[in-house]
C-alpha cells in the first residue's frame, strides 16, 4: 500500500469540545528515547480528552501507540531526500486539514522541514523538540539543524541542551522551554520487579550470588564508554566482581570484536561479559550493585542514569552533559572526569565500598529525586501545558 493510500484510510476522529488535536512527527517508531516520549505524550493527550495523531515511517511501537487510543499515519518522513521531504509537506498539510489539527510537533530534523512547511501552509502552531546536540561542525550542518529552532515553542530536553542551543545557535528567548524526558515509574520501580524475573535474568547471565555486579547499559558504540570501562577495570585490579556490558551491537560486529579482544588483552575474560540486548531492564538494574554511564560525549539527557536511580541503584556517570542534572553528586551517585579511566576506576571503587546503610540511604534519595523531577507524568503535564499556552496565545492574537 502506498503512503498516499494509507493517508486516505483512517477516519477522522471527533475531538472533544475545546480539546486540542496534536500531530507529532518523527522518523520511525522502532525504539529509543524520542519514540518513547512520543508515545507517552500521545497517551497523555488522549487521556486529557484530546486527539493524538502520529506520523512516522512505522515500527514495532505503532501497536503501543494505537492501544493508547492515538492514530498512526505511515509516511516516509524518515527520508532526507529533498524531493521526498517536499512531497511529505503536501501530505502532512492534507492530514492537518482533514483532522483539523491544532498543533504540529516535530521531533527530528528531516521530518521538521516537511512539518514546518505544512504548518505554515495551514497556519497551525508549530513546536519542535531539540533532542540532541546533532552534528554541527560546519555551516551546512548548522543550517540543516536550525529547523529545530523555528518552532513557535522549542522544547529542550535538559538544561544542557538549552545551553547548547544558546551557545551554538545564539537562541536565547522565551520560545525555548526545558522539559526533561520522563521515566515510567510504574515500570522502573523496585517494587514492580518480581523475584522470578531476577532469578531468570541471573541464570541467563550466570551471575553468582554474593559477587558484586557492575553494569554499563547501552548499545555497543564507541562513545557509550565500553572501552573506557574495560580500561578502568584493568586499573581497578579486582577479579572478585562481575561486569556486564548490556546492549546490542546493532550490526557493529567490528566494535564488538574489538571489545572482546581488549577484554582478553587486559586479562579480564572472567570478569567482563557482553550481555547483548535486554528486554527487562528494570530487573537488570536490580541485579546491579553499581550502574555506569560512561559516555565520552555528553548525553543530551541520559536515560540510563535516571532509570538506574529510579531503581535505587548507585550511579557512576561522566561529569558532563545532562548527567550533571540527573545525578546528585555524592548523594545519588559519583561523577567522574569524562574519558578518564583512572577517575572512573576510583569512582567505581567508591560506589562498591558503600555499606548497607549507606546504600539504603542512597537508594531512598535517588528514588525520591527521580520521582520528583524526572517522571513521565511530569514530562507529559509540562508538554500539555505548553500546548495549552500556545493555543491560548494564538486564540488571543486572532481575536
Topology, element by element:
Elements: H1 3-8, E1 21-25, H2 33-47, E2 51-56, H3 62-67, E3 71-74, H4 82-99, E4 103-106, H5 109-122, E5 125-130, H6 139-145, E6 153-156, H7 159-169, E7 176-178, H8 195-205, E8 213-217, H9 226-236, E9 242-246, H10 253-265, E10 272-274, H11 281-287, E11 290-293, H12 303-310, E12 315-318, H13 323-326, E13 333-336, H14 341-352, H15 356-373, H16 376-397
Parallel strand pairs: 1-2, 1-4, 2-3, 4-5, 5-6, 6-7, 8-9, 8-11, 9-10, 11-12, 12-13
Helix pairs in contact: 2-16, 4-5, 8-11, 9-14, 12-15
Task: Walk me through what this model shows.
By secondary structure, the protein is α/β, with parallel strands linked by helices. The protein is 46% helix and 14% strand. The chain is built from 16 helices and 13 strands. The protein has helices spanning 3-8, 33-47, 62-67, 82-99, 109-122, 139-145, 159-169, 195-205, 226-236, 253-265, 281-287, 303-310, 323-326, 341-352, 356-373, 376-397; strands spanning 21-25, 51-56, 71-74, 103-106, 125-130, 153-156, 176-178, 213-217, 242-246, 272-274, 290-293, 315-318, 333-336. Strands 3-2-1-4-5-6-7 form a 7-stranded parallel sheet, with helices on both faces. Helix 2 crosses helix 16 (376-397), helix 4 crosses helix 5 (109-122) and helix 8 crosses helix 11 (281-287).
What's the quick description here?
By secondary structure, the protein is an alpha/beta fold. It is built from 16 helices and 13 strands. The strands form two sheets. Strands 3-2-1-4-5-6-7 form a seven-stranded parallel beta sheet, with helices on both faces.
Amino acid at each position: 500500500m502506498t503512503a498516499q493510500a494509507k493517508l486516505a484510510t483512517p477516519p477522522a476522529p471527533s475531538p472533544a469540545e475545546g480539546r486540542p488535536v496534536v500531530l507529532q512527527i518523527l522518523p520511525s517508531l522502532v525504539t529509543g528515547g524520542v519514540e518513547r516520549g512520543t508515545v507517552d505524550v500521545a497517551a497523555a493527550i488522549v487521556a486529557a480528552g484530546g486527539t493524538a495523531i502520529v506520523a512516522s515511517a512505522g515500527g514495532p511501537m505503532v501497536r503501543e501507540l494505537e492501544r493508547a487510543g492515538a492514530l498512526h499515519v505511515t509516511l516516509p518522513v524518515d527520508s532526507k531526500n529533498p524531493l521526498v521531504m517536499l512531497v511529505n509537506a503536501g501530505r502532512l498539510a492534507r492530514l492537518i486539514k482533514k483532522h483539523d489539527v491544532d498543533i504540529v510537533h516535530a521531533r527530528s530534523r528531516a521530518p521538521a522541514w516537511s512539518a514546518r512547511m505544512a504548518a505554515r501552509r495551514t497556519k497551525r502552531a508549530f513546536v519542535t523538540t531539540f533532542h540532541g546536540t546533532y552534528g554541527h561542525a560546519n555551516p551546512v550542518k548548522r543550517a540543516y539543524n536550525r529547523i529545530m529552532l523555528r518552532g513557535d515553542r522549542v522544547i529542550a530536553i535538559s538544561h544542557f541542551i538549552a545551553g547548547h542551543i544558546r551557545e551554538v545557535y545564539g537562541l536565547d528567548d522565551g520560545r525555548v522551554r526545558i522539559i526533561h524526558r520522563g521515566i515510567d515509574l510504574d515500570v522502573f520501580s523496585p517494587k514492580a520487579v518480581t523475584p522470578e524475573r531476577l532469578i531468570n535474568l541471573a541464570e541467563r547471565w550466570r551471575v553468582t550470588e554474593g559477587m558484586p555486579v557492575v553494569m554499563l547499559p547501552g548499545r555497543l558504540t564507541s562513545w557509550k564508554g565500553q572501552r573506557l570501562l574495560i580500561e578502568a577495570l584493568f586499573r581497578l585490579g579486582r577479579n572478585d566482581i562481575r561486569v556486564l556490558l548490556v546492549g546490542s551491537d546493532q550490526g557493529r560486529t567490528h566494535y564488538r570484536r574489538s571489545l572482546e579482544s581488549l577484554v582478553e588483552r587486559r586479562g579480564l575474560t572472567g570478569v567482563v561479559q557482553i550481555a547483548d540486548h535486554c528486554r527487562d531492564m528494570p530487573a537488570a538494574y536490580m541485579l546491579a550493585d553499581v550502574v555506569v554511564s560512561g559516555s565520552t560525549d555528553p548525553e543530551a539527557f541520559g536515560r540510563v542514569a535516571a532509570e538506574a536511580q529510579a531503581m535505587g541503584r548507585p550511579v557512576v556517570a561522566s561529569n558532563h552533559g545532562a548527567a550533571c542534572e540527573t545525578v546528585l553528586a555524592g548523594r545519588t551517585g559519583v561523577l567522574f572526569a569524562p574519558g578518564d579511566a583512572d577517575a572512573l576506576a576510583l569512582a567505581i571503587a567508591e560506589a562498591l565500598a558503600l555499606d548497607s546503610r549507606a546504600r539504603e540511604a542512597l537508594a531512598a534519595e535517588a528514588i525520591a529525586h527521580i520521582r520528583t523531577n524526572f517522571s513521565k507524568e511530569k514530562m507529559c503535564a509540562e508538554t500539555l501545558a505548553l500546548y495549552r499556552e500556545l493555543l491560548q496565545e494564538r486564540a488571543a492574537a486572532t481575536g
